[in-house]
Design brief:
The structure holds two protein chains of two kinds.
Chain A: H1 6-22, H2 26-42, H3 48-68, H4 72-109, H5 127-143, H6 151-159, H7 161-164, H8 172-175, H9 190-221, H10 228-259, H11 277-281, H12 286-297, H13 307-325, H14 329-348, H15 358-377, H16 381-391, H17 402-416, H18 419-430, H19 434-450
Helix pairs in contact in A: 1-2, 2-6, 3-4, 3-5, 3-6, 4-5, 5-6, 9-10, 9-18, 9-19, 10-15, 10-16, 10-17, 12-13, 13-14, 14-15
Chain B: H1 12-15, H2 23-41, H3 45-49, H4 56-74, H5 77-85, H6 101-104, E1 133-134, E2 137-142, H7 149-157, E3 163-168, H8 182-193, E4 197-201, E5 210-211, E6 217-218, H9 223-241, E7 247-251, H10 259-276, E8 283-286, H11 289-292, E9 301-304, E10 307-310, H12 321-338, E11 339-340
Parallel strand pairs in B: 1-11, 2-3, 2-4, 4-7, 7-8
Antiparallel strand pairs in B: 5-6, 9-10
C-alpha cells in the first residue's frame, strides 16, 4: 500500500482513531497495531507476511537466547548465527538472480561455475529495511544497548507500518522504549505530523514524479536521443527527484508516526548542502549510514588501525552499502565511488580542506555526488557509458522548461539557505491550530492529486531496495 | 565515518518547542482532512478502485466510493474542485473516439460483408510486397506489458534518427475504461503523433465485464465476450492504421503463470487475430507465444544463444529486460520488412 493512495487514505484514519481508542488498553492495542501493520503489508502481497512473521519469530528467539546466557562467547555465536541467517534471507530474495546470472558468468569464465538453478524470486517490498532492523535488534540486545522485548513488542518494532517498507531504519534501542508504556494522549505533535505529511506529499507527487515523467525517465530511458544540455538537466533533475522521492517518503512516515504518538529518527538534513563526502553521509539517508557505521564499519575495526586498514574498512562498508541498494554492478560501483571519495577525503584531511574555499568544496562535492547518481540511475553499465557520452555531446536543449528548472533550482537552492529561518517558518506553521492545518493539508492533497496521471502514483524509488 | 555521540535526534520535536495537542486533535484533524476529501473529490474514489488489483482492498475502496460518489453528485464541490485543478493534470486532453457500445456489440449484418484486398498480407500469399516507406515516427503503446519494450525499441532506433514516442498506460485495459478509454486514447495519440507505425502490447489487465448486444453485462471469457472484446480491439486497430497511412504491429500476450489469467490471455490472443482480419496488409500480428511460451506452457526461462536465460519478471506476467530485448528483435524484424530506416 502506497502512502499517497486512496487505499491508504481509507486505512489511516480508521487505524489512527482505533489506535488512540485502544492505546490505554495495551493488551488490545498491541495486537491491533500488529494486525493493522500486517494488513498494510499484505496489500502488496499477502505471502510476504509469512516472511515478515518468520523473521520476527526467528530474531525474537535469538534475542531471548542471547539474553538468557551468561557466556559472552555463546551470546556472540548466537548473535552471529542470527545475523548470518538474516543476511542469507536477504541474499536469497534480493541477490539470488544477480548471483546466478552475473556472478555465475564470472565464475564460469574461470571454470568455477556452479550448477545453480535459474529462478525468478519476487522481491518482498521493504525486505532490506526490516531485515536491517532485525539485525539491530539482536545486535543491540547482545551489546546490552536494548533489552529483549516480548514477542508482541518485537513484532510491532519490525512491522510498524509507517517505517515498514522504506524506513527510516529505527534502532531497537530507539523504538522499544517507546513501547514500554502507552503513548501519552495529551502530548501528540499534531502540527509537526500534519506539516511533515503535507511537505512529503508535495516533494513526492508534485516534484519527484513530475521530474521523473518530464525529464529523468525519457533521458535515462533513451540517452541516445538527447544531447549534453538535456543529459546535464536530467542528471540534476534525478538528484532532485531521488531526494524528494525518498525524503518525501520519510517525511510522511515520520509525520504518520507522530500522529500515532511515536518518534522516528531523522533521515535527511539538507544533503546537497554537504561540503564533503563525510558531510554528505551525515545528511543523506542518515539512518542507513549510521547502521553501516555501527553494525559494519566499527565491527570491521573502523579507524582503529593503520591508514590502509581504515581505507579497507571504508571501501568494504561503502561497497556493501551500494550493494544493499540493489543487485546490480551499477550499485556496487556507486558504493565504490563513494568509498573512494571518502578514502581520498580521509587521506587529504587537513592538507587541502582548510585552504579550499567552502563554495569550491561544496561545488566539487555536489558535482561528484551528481556524477555518482548517473551510475545509480543507470540500469546497466552500457547505458552508463552511453549517458556519459551524451553529456559531452553538444546539441539542442529540448527539455529545459520553466517548471522543471524552477523545481530543480528551488529544491537544491533551499538546502543552501541558512537553515534557521526556514526552521522557524516551519515551526510557526506547525503551531497553527490543528483544524487549520487539516484544511491546508486537504488543499495540498487536492492540488497534488490533480497532478497525478491517470495511471496513478508511481512507487517510491526506495521501495525496490 | 566518525562515531557520533547523538545521531538519533529523537528529542528534536520537544527540543524545538513543539506545540503539543491531544490525541483527539490528531484524530479530529485527520477526520477533517478525510471529510474535505470526500466532499471535494469523493466522485473519484470509485475510479481509483479500478486501478487496484482485484481483491478485498478493491472491494473496500469500491464500497467507500459508492456513497461518496452519491454525495459528490449532489453537491457542487467535486465539480468545482475539478474545474479549478484541471489545468494541473499531466494527462493529454482526449476528444472523441470513445468505444461505441452500439457498434461494438452489433450483431447480424444485413448482408455478407465483402472481403477486400486489405484483408491479405501480400507476404502470406507470395504476392509482391509494396515498396518500403521510410520510418520516421514510431508510437509504442499499450499497458505495462509495453515497458520496457518501449525503451528497448527507442534505444535501438535512436541511431537511425527514428522518433520513437513511448506512451504506455500502466494498469489500463481495453475491456475496462475506468482509467483510460482506449477508444479515446488511441484517437488522441494518432491525432497528436500521426505515427508511421504503431507497436501495441496490451492485455495484462483484461477481463472486465463488457456490455452485450442487449445491454446486458458479459462476463469473461465466453464467445460472446470474445466477440465484444474483439470489436473493441478492432476499433483501436482501425484508429492506429490511419486509413492505411500507418502500419500496426500488435503483439500477442505470452502465457502467464497463473492459470486463471492464462484463460483470459487465450481469449485476448484469439480476439487480436480475429480483429485484425480486415486489414492484414496493414496490421501485423507479432506472436510472442511461440517465442516465450511454446505450446502455451508457462516458463520463466528460455534458451538464448545456448544459455538458459530468465525472460520473465517474478510476477509471472511481464517480460524482464532480457525478454523485452527478444520481443524487440521480433518487432524490428517485422518493421524492417515494411520500412527502411
Amino acid at each position: 500500500m502506497l502512502f499517497p493512495t486512496i487505499e491508504f487514505a481509507i486505512f489511516f484514519p480508521i487505524v489512527l482513531g482505533l489506535s488512540w481508542l485502544l492505546m490505554p488498553r495495551q493488551p488490545l492495542w498491541k495486537p491491533f497495531i500488529v494486525v493493522a501493520s500486517y494488513v498494510f503489508y499484505a496489500a502488496a502481497d499477502p505471502r510476504f507476511c509469512l516472511l515478515l512473521g518468520g523473521i520476527t519469530i526467528g530474531n525474537q528467539v535469538a534475542a531471548r537466547l542471547i539474553d538468557r546466557t551468561d557466556d559472552a562467547k555463546r551470546a556472540a555465536r548466537i548473535c552471529g548465527v542470527a545475523v548470518v541467517l538474516n543476511l542469507l534471507t536477504l541474499g536469497v530474495f534480493k541477490y539470488y538472480g544477480f548471483f546466478v546470472s552475473d556472478v555465475g558468468d564470472v565464475l564460469d569464465s574461470v571454470a568455477l561455475g556452479m550448477p545453480l538453478p535459474l529462478l525468478t524470486i519476487a522481491l518482498p517490498i521493504g525486505i532490506s529495511f526490516f531485515i536491517f532492523q532485525a539485525i539491530t535488534y539482536v545486535v543491540d540486545v547482545k551489546r546490552g544497548d536494548a533489552e529483549p522485548a516480548s514477542l508482541i513488542d518485537a513484532a510491532i518494532y519490525l512491522s510498524f507500518f509507517p517505517h515498514l517498507v522504506a524506513g527510516p531504519i529505527v534502532r531497537a534501542s530507539e523504538f522499544l522504549p517507546q513501547l514500554k508504556a502507552p503513548r501519552d494522549p495529551r502530548r501528540v505533535a499534531v502540527g509537526a505530523g500534519l506539516v511533515l505529511i503535507g511537505i512529503g506529499l508535495l516533494k513526492k507527487v508534485l516534484v519527484a514524479d513530475t521530474l521523473a515523467r518530464e525529464v529523468v525517465d525519457p533521458v535515462f530511458g533513451v540517452p541516445e536521443a538527447y544531447f549534453a544540455p538535456d543529459a546535464i538537466l536530467a542528471t540534476l533533475a534525478y538528484a532532485t527527484q531521488i531526494y524528494c522521492d525518498f525524503s518525501g517518503y520519510t517525511d510522511i512516515a515520520i509525520g504518520l508516526a507522530l500522529l500515532l504518538g511515536f518518534v522516528f529518527p531523522q533521515n535527511f538534513h539538507s544533503p546537497y548542502r554537504a561540503t564533503g563526502f563525510r558531510d554528505f553521509w551525515r545528511r543523506w539517508h542518515m539512518t542507513l549510514s549510521r547502521f553501516l557505521r555501527d553494525y559494519l564499519y566499527i565491527p570491521l575495526g573502523g579507524s582503529r588501525g593503520s591508514r590502509l586498514f581504515t581505507y579497507r574498512n571504508l571501501m568494504i562498508t561503502m561497497v556493501l552499502g551500494g550493494l544493499w541498494h540493489g543487485a546490480a554492478w551499477t550499485f556496487v560501483l556507486w558504493g565504490a565511488f563513494h568509498g573512494a571519495m571518502l578514502v581520498t577525503e580521509h587521506a587529504l584531511a587537513g592538507r587541502i580542506g582548510r585552504r579550499t574555499p567552502v563554495w569550491l568544496r561544496w561545488a566539487g562535492t555536489f558535482a561528484a555526488v551528481c556524477f555518482a547518481w548517473i551510475l545509480f540511475r543507470s540500469p546497466d553499465l552500457d547505458l552508463f557509458w552511453t549517458y556519459l557520452g551524451r553529456i559531452v555531446d553538444p546539441g539542442p536543449a529540448t527539455l529545459w522548461t520553466v517548471p522543471v528548472l524552477a523545481m530543480v533550482v528551488a529544491v537544491i537552492g533551499i538546502q543552501l539557505l541558512p537553515p534557521r529561518p526556514l526552521e522557524r517558518l516551519q515551526l510557526r506553521i506547525e503551531r497553527l491550530r490543528p483544524l487549520a492545518l487539516a484544511v491546508a493539508l486537504a488543499i495540498v492533497i487536492l492540488v497534488v492529486g490533480a497532478t497525478v496521471p491517470s495511471q496513478g502514483v508511481p512507487p517510491f524509488i526506495y521501495f525496490q531496495f | 565515518m566518525s562515531q557520533h555521540t547523538d545521531d538519533s535526534e529523537m528529542s528534536r520535536f520537544e527540543r524545538r518547542g513543539q506545540h503539543v495537542y491531544g490525541a483527539r486533535d490528531a484524530v479530529g484533524a485527520v477526520a477533517l482532512v478525510a471529510l474535505l476529501l470526500i466532499l471535494f473529490a469523493g466522485g473519484s474514489i470509485r475510479d481509483a478502485a479500478a486501478q487496484i488489483d482485484q481483491g478485498i482492498g478493491q472491494e473496500i475502496v469500491e464500497a467507500v466510493g459508492g456513497p461518496t460518489e452519491w454525495l459528490a453528485e449532489r453537491l457542487p464541490l467535486d465539480e468545482a474542485q475539478h474545474e479549478l485543478t484541471a489545468g494541473l493534470s499531466p494527462d493529454a486532453e482526449l476528444a472523441g473516439g470513445a468505444f461505441d457500445e452500439g457498434a461494438a456489440t452489433a450483431t447480424g449484418a444485413a448482408r455478407v460483408p465483402p472481403v477486400t484486398a486489405a484483408a491479405f498480407d501480400p507476404a502470406a500469399i507470395g504476392a509482391p510486397p509494396p515498396p518500403k516507406a521510410e520510418l520516421e515516427t514510431l508510437l509504442v503503446t499499450g499497458d505495462s506489458l509495453a515497458t520496457p519494450l518501449d525503451t528497448e525499441l527507442a534505444r535501438r532506433l535512436a541511431p537511425d534518427g527514428v522518433e520513437v514516442v513511448r506512451d504506455p498506460h500502466l494498469g489500463t485495459a481495453i475491456s475496462g475504461t475506468a482509467i483510460a478509454d482506449w477508444g479515446e486514447l488511441s484517437t488522441a495519440q494518432v491525432a497528436r503523433e500521426a505515427p508511421d507505425a504503431v507497436v501495441v502490447f496490451i492485455g495484462a489487465n483484461e477481463g472486465f465485464a463488457l456490455p452485450g448486444p442487449g445491454g446486458e453485462q458479459l462476463e469473461c471469457c465466453g464467445v460472446d465476450y470474445a466477440a465484444a472484446f474483439a470489436n473493441r480491439v478492432r476499433q483501436v486497430m482501425d484508429t492506429y492504421r490511419r486509413d492505411g497511412e500507418a502500419k500496426v504491429y500488435w503483439l500477442t500476450v505470452m502465457t502467464p503463470r497463473d492459470p486463471q489469467s492464462a484463460r483470459v490471455i487465450k481469449m485476448v490472443n484469439a480476439a487480436i487475430e480475429v480483429a485484425a482480419q480486415p486489414w492484414r496488409d496493414q496490421i501485423r500480428i507479432v506472436d510472442t507465444v511461440p517465442i516465450f511460451t511454446p505450446g502455451d506452457s508457462y516458463r520463466d526461462a528460455i534458451d538464448v544463444d545456448g544459455a538458459e536465460t530468465i525472460v520473465r519478471e517474478s510476477d509471472g506476467i511481464h517480460l524482464n529486460a532480457e525478454g523485452s530485448s527478444i520481443a524487440a528483435d521480433a518487432v524490428l524484424d517485422r518493421i524492417d520488412a515494411d520500412f527502411t530506416r
